[in-house]
Amino acid sequence: MDRLSPRLRDLLTNLAVSAVSVFVFLLICELLVFRVILPSGSTPDNAYIDDVVRYEPGQTGTWRVRNEIAAPYAINAQGWNSGLDGYSEARTPGVPRIAVVGDSYVEALQVPPDASMAERLSETLYVAADQPGEVYRFGMSGAPLSQYVHMARHEVADYKPDWLVVLLIHNDFDESFRFQAGRYASSFLKFDVDNGQVVGEIAPQPLRPSPYGWFRNFATLRFLVYRWQVRPDVILANLFSSSPTDAPAEPTAEPYDAATQPADVPPAEPEPAPEFAANVNLTELLTVRSDVEAATSYGFEQLQRAATDMGANLLLVMDGDRRSLREGNKNGPALVLNEMAAREADKLGIAFLDLQPVFSADWDAHQQRFEHDVDNHWNAYGHEVAARAVADHIRQHTNQQSD
């Protein structure tokens, strides 16, 4: 050290002090700030049981998003977020049972366990009427229609419900044959679609630990990624993309000049901006519409077959275009998928409940949001409205059967 020049010695000293300062700052953030002062919340760990991805049983915690959502969750003995400690395969004579299948809307980490559609359905149909009844829910974030089929076959069938209620979201259809990034996306069943036809199924891969899974143990990173929804991929893309002050790229074609361009060649029109609605890139999705329709028809057919095998009535429930409703548009662009789903269900004779008119009527009457400000998932009120609609459908069907 004595041989180092004073300038280099000062530089190394400053670097060491800076490194220690950063370490102490991160330690304070990790052990105090994001655990006590601004708690990051927790995320349940996944498991792969009986060929179905779910959560490790017995976990509890609090799911947080920004400063709006702080919802407790409870993973039951079978690995599903639920207000019930566990599900019983054995049936009690005279006690009806409903199974609700879906993605993060059924999983419902954004609301307390007793506020999800499944629990509100149980309250509306059974508890309020002082009648016995069971509602089990099977929800997994990111699951598409294809995975609902897999869950119905390999999990729900064991419980032999009287009703199989499947909640459909707008991104369920194309993601049934397109692989998405994610910790467990490859553990979802996929349909093999080729030129507008389903030619087979791609079996889910067993869940394997992610090499990056360790980061979820750090409160600081959970705070940034989960609670504050910082997207590392977006940040990296912005860091490595050209800034507005960079020199413009060289033009790839000569600009249009009416004086020199042949009269029969119109100017090239700019590419239209993609249209996004209900978490779906509709512009891109509709370019593969025949594939989407094939996957939807096949998925519905397989759900119908699974429901028949387990002796259940099948009800498909479709989310509405809630943002368009708030903007005063009752015919939002995403409803093209509602219409497609209703049409495919009608072809197969499957009961279909479109929540768009349900949400529309309720919005007109109460002007109350169905989703969170910082998260498009249903809030407790949205779950309540959806549960009432499903309960009405089941009541009507039951009354018709008894007449």
Task: Describe this entry's structure for a reader.
It is a single chain. This protein is an alpha/beta fold and 403 residues long. The chain has a domain at 81-211 and 273-402: SGNH hydrolase (Rossmann fold, 3-Layer(aba) Sandwich), CATH 3.40.50. Helices cover 38% and strands 16% of the residues. The chain has helices spanning 6-37, 104-107, 117-127, 145-154, 219-227, 232-240, 282-285, 289-309, 322-326, 335-347, 355-366, 380-402; strands spanning 46-49, 52-55, 60-65, 69-74, 97-102, 134-139, 163-168, 190-194, 197-202, 276-277, 280-281, 313-318, 351-354. The strands form five sheets. A five-stranded parallel beta sheet has the order 6-5-7-12-13, with helices on both faces. A hairpin with a 2-residue loop joins strand 10 (276-277) and strand 11 (280-281). Residues 242-265 have low confidence and may be disordered.
Properties at a glance:
13 strands; globular; 403 residues; Rossmann fold; 38% helix; two-stranded antiparallel sheet
| Number of continuous helical runs | 12
Please state the overall shape, judged from the principal axes of the Cα atoms: globular
Structural class: alpha/beta
- In CATH terms, what is the architecture of one domain? 3-Layer(aba) Sandwich
Q: Which residues sit in consecutive blocks of at least 5 with pLDDT less than 50?
A: 242-265
Question: How is the largest sheet built, in terms of strand order?
Answer: 6-5-7-12-13
The SSE order reads HEEEEEHHEHEEEHHEEHHEHHEHH
Average pLDDT level: 88
- Beginning-to-end CA distance, first to last residue: 95 Å
Strand content: 15-25%
Describe the largest sheet: 5 strands, parallel
Q: What is the CATH domain class of one domain?
A: Alpha Beta
